[in-house]
Amino acid sequence: MSKPTVLVIDDERDIRELLTITLGRMGLMVETASNVTEAKQRLADTRYALCFTDMRLPDGSGQEIIELIAARYPETPVAMITAYGNVDAAVNALKAGAFDFVSKPVDINMLRRLVQTAMRLAEEKKIEPPSAGAAKMLGDSPAIQELRLTITKLARSQAPVYISGESGVGKELVARLIHEQGPRASSPFVPVNCGAIPSELMESEFFGHKKGSFTGAQADKDGLFQAANGGTLFLDEVAELPIQMQVKLLRVIQEKAVRPIGGRAEVPVDVRILSATHKNLAKLVEANQFRQDLFYRINVIELRVPPLRERREDVPKLAGRVLERLATDSGQPAARLTPEALAALLSYAFPGNVRELENVIERAVALCENNTITPEDLRLTPHAQPANMAAAPADDDGDDAGDGGLDSYISNLEREAIMKALLETRYNKTAAAKKLGITFRALRYKLKKLGID
Questions:
Q1: Can the peptide bond before residue 307 be classed as cis, meaning omega within 30 degrees of 0?
Q2: Torsion (CA) 353, 356, 357, 363 in degrees, nearest 10
Q3: Distance CA 453, CA 444 (A)
Q4: Do the Cβ atoms of 430 and 193 come closer than 8 Å?
Q5: How far apart are CA 130 and CA 55, in angstroms?
Q6: Which candidate, 117, 127, 77, places its Cα nearest to that of 97?
Q7: In the chain, what's the furthest Cα-to-Cα distance?
Q8: Mean pLDDT, to the nearest integer, of 110-128?
Q9: Which residues neighbour 106 within 8 Å (Cβ) at sequence distance 6 or greater?
Q10: Eight-class DSSP state of 4
Q11: Which residues, in sequence order, are CB contacts of 424 under 8 Å at separation 6+?
């Protein structure tokens, strides 16, 4: 079996020799080119497992090579070799279709990890159907079919992806699919809600700390970046990061290394960054509430997840899946929607998107008679609380707290307040917790306790 062959394009002999030696020790064959013309000829003659190209070449640019490979040889991952700290060039290369980038002077350990990831990607392309895993993104609408195709394409890159969309559309699911379909699938996927970490603990949570570095640091602790090493770190609600944390995050992304609190040395990390928020990051940048340089770095590729109202034809299938899941969980036959109930769902705007649909169906199953869901069970009247499971007391003297007694009555009041806050914040749990005056963790506890989520 022949060894995989790598093409190195650089006009500096030292760089070509360094990469040839390093890649050769990894069991790879290496061919080199010193300019664009020579590189184009080699690409036309040979199929390469991986390509490295310098940014500046005597007769053109590495950007030209990347665009050529993306158009004619998409099965070949290509990495840009950039000058140290040249973020603009790296971002432009990733947008043009580069798999990743490596900075001069070349870090050998980082280079090895990059090559290993690229080799896994090339191998998976041979054995895995292009849409494997995308079936989890349920629906047949044109919008969701296009989203599935884009996810498959983005999974092949290592470029940072910014996932935009309203609350409840499934941004974390999209991030998981990008991870699962890519070469990092066997490594960790670490999701973090940036709005749920207290600001005073944020640096320790992200970068880790050394024993004794602060009061309460009784042992060394790895941070989220170390936990995601080799895999993907998903920064959900990234707009909630404080400015000072944005500065530190930007440095880690650029340097591909973290310094734990109390640590003397930086620790290299190989992490793909995916991020998301329901807020408009571009407007936050204009308002100086989010750093422009960080936005530029994480928004190499933007992926918009459509709201449910833009793919209404998927509602029946989504509702059916929720009914199947509830039936499996309860061990009971699946409830059914009457034609009128289905019509009501199809005509509803769903400001809380898929998450709201799930909550509506779960509530309706609990309320319906004879396992049949009617429009009344859905409670979709615009001004009604859509997930209000409490019935009003039968009289005004306040003595009737319901069949479950005082605890049940209080739970119903809590449920009403929580669902009102969720509706007003379009099912953004972080914002709902703030509106209710409780912590994010307390809200999560109450949602589980009350059976809302």
A1: no
A2: -170
A3: 8
A4: yes
A5: 30
A6: 77
A7: 90
A8: 68
A9: 15, 18, 19, 81
A10: P
A11: 432, 435
Where is 283: in which H helix or E strand? helix 281-286
Residues in the chain: 453
* pLDDT given at position 322: 93
Mean pLDDT score, 300-325: 93
How does DSSP assign 111-165, residue by residue?
HHHHHHHHHHHHHHHHHS-TTTTGGGS---SHHHHHHHHHHHHHHT--S-EEEE-
Q: What amino acid is encoded at 429 in this protein?
A: K
pLDDT at 26 over 70: yes
Is residue 283 a contact partner of residue 274, using CB atoms and an 8 Å limit? no
Q: Could you give the count of Cα atoms lying within 13 Å of 79 in the half-sphere of its Cβ?
A: 25
Q: What is the pLDDT of residues 333-374, one digit of tens each?
A: 999 999 999 999 999 999 999 999 999 999 999 889 999 999
Instruction: Out of 242-251, 261-270, 434-443, give the one with best mean pLDDT.
Output: 242-251
- Mean pLDDT across the stretch 117-142? 63
Question: 């999560």: which residue's tokens?
Answer: 444
Instruction: Report the distance separating Cα 8 and Cα 159, nearest Å.
Output: 21
First to last CA, the chain: 53
Q: Is 249 helix (H, G, I), strand (E, B) or coil?
A: helix
Q: Name the nearest CA neighbour of 302 among 174, 432, 202.
A: 174
Residues 6+ apart with CB under 8 A from 242: 199, 202
* Per-residue model confidence as pLDDT tens digits over 194-217: 988 888 888 888 998 888 777 667
pLDDT tens digits, residue range 390-429? Answer: 333 333 344 444 444 555 556 667 777 888 788 778 778 8
The label of the residue with tokens 């060394």 reads: 220
CA–CA dist 442, 432 (Å, integer): 11
Taking Cα atoms as reference points, which of 180, 116, 123, 125 lies closest to residue 148? Answer: 180
**pTM score above 0.70:** no
Report the b/e string of 416-441 with b at 16+ CB within 10 A.
Answer: eebbbbbbebbbbbbbbbbbbeeebe
Q: What percent of the chain has pLDDT over 70?
A: 87
Separation between Cα atoms, residue 432 and residue 447, nearest integer Å: 12
Q: How far, in Å, are 96, 195, 251 from residue 247 at the CA level?
A: 26, 17, 7
- Residue 204, classed as helix, strand or coil, is helix
Alpha-carbon distance of 425 to 148, in angstroms, equals 28
Please say whether the beta carbons of 199 and 242 come within 8 A: yes
The shares of helix, strand and coil residues in the chain, as percent rounded to the nearest 5, are: 50, 15, 35
